[in-house]
């Protein structure tokens, strides 16, 4: 009789691969660290190989361990699809749904839409994970997320996209830095010597520059923010000007700062979208969730 790894053991393995820390991996799996460690030792004993090198400082996967964890992601993704088949055949949006949301959307859109989602789908157990587009899309591909709320354009791999709405960009500047500003700002008038943007890894930086037709602009590396809140504080300190999406403006990001926001001429915008793996058995549920998000955001 052949003994096969359990899904629980594979979940422990992938969690350790993602978090690279036994304590954080155990927390992600809602078990104690000793339980997770014991499960991994059982998996290694079952396979007859060492998968992880353990020491007090780092967790390092062996070369064979990297191959095994890649297969583990595939197995868990298929197991999740199997569960999705049964979920899709019953009541929609019931049970667990793991949703990734990027940082330039999460704090500004979720407070507007979550009350309606809860009201319409009271039996939905929504797990939210805030992350930048690249890691979120990687988690979606691995099967550790079911869907991702992000901004287009962005290459998220082999996914189905449901655009929800356009989110226009605004130029934000200190009131003392532009006398009698026009109702709209021409993209060509943006001063690249004083432009403040998010640091590398945030899709908003490239999306904003491309949307306004100025992809050649480059912000000063010494003046890059880690978040939209940081950018606003930098502009308030008269370090320059920046591009902020309308979602954040509508949420009151610059309220009380004395800063001025003007839309960009030409309708420069990013597109907020919900994406999920192609051929997911829960695609109908994700479209229903997307329709709810779209309606709630339009209020």
From TrEMBL:
Gene3D superfamilies: Periplasmic binding protein-like II, Winged helix-like DNA-binding domain superfamily/Winged helix DNA-binding domain. One of its GO terms (cellular component) is protein-DNA complex. Belongs to the LysR transcriptional regulatory family. It comes from the Bacteria. InterPro entries: LysR_HTH_N (IPR000847), LysR_subst-bd (IPR005119), WH-like_DNA-bd_sf (IPR036388), WH_DNA-bd_sf (IPR036390). It comes from Sandarakinorhabdus fusca. This is LysR family transcriptional regulator. PROSITE patterns: HTH_LYSR (PS50931). Transmembrane segments: none annotated. Keywords: DNA-binding, Transcription, Transcription regulation. It holds the Pfam family LysR_substrate. GO terms for molecular function: DNA binding; DNA-binding transcription factor activity. Residues 5-62 form the HTH lysR-type domain.
């Amino acid at each position: 009789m052949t003994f096969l790894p359990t899904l629980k053991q594979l979940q422990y393995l992938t969690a350790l691969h993602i978090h690279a820390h036994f304590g954080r991996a155990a927390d992600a799996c809602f078990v104690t660290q000793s339980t997770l460690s014991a499960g991994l030792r059982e998996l290694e004993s079952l396979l007859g190989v060492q998968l992880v090198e353990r020491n007090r400082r780092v967790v390092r996967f062996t070369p064979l361990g990297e191959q095994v964890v890649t297969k583990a992601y595939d197995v868990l993704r298929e197991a999740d699809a199997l569960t999705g088949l049964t979920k899709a055949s019953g009541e929609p949006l019931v049970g667990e749904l793991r949703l990734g949301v990027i940082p330039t959307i999460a704090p500004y859109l979720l407070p507007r839409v979550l009350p309606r989602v809860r009201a319409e789908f009271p039996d939905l157990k929504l797990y939210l994970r805030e992350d930048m587009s690249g890691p979120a899309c990687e988690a979606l591909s691995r099967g550790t997320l079911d869907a991702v709320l992000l901004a287009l354009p962005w290459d998220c791999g082999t996914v189905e996209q449901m655009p929800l709405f356009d989110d226009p960009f605004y130029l934000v500047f200190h009131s003392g830095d532009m006398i009698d500003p026009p109702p709209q700002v021409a993209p060509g008038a943006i001063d690249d010597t004083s432009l403040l943007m998010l640091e590398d890894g945030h899709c908003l930086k490239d999306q904003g520059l491309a949307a306004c037709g100025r992809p050649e602009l480059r912000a000063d590396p010494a003046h890059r923010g880690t978040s939209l809140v940081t950018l606003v504080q930098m502009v308030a300190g008269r370090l320059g000007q920046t591009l902020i999406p309308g979602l954040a403006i509508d949420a009151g990001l610059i309220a009380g700062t004395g800063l001025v926001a003007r839309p960009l001429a030409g309708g420069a915008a990013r597109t907020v979208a919900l994406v999920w793996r192609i051929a997911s058995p829960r695609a109908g549920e994700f479209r229903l969730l997307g329709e709810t998000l779209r309606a709630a955001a339009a209020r």
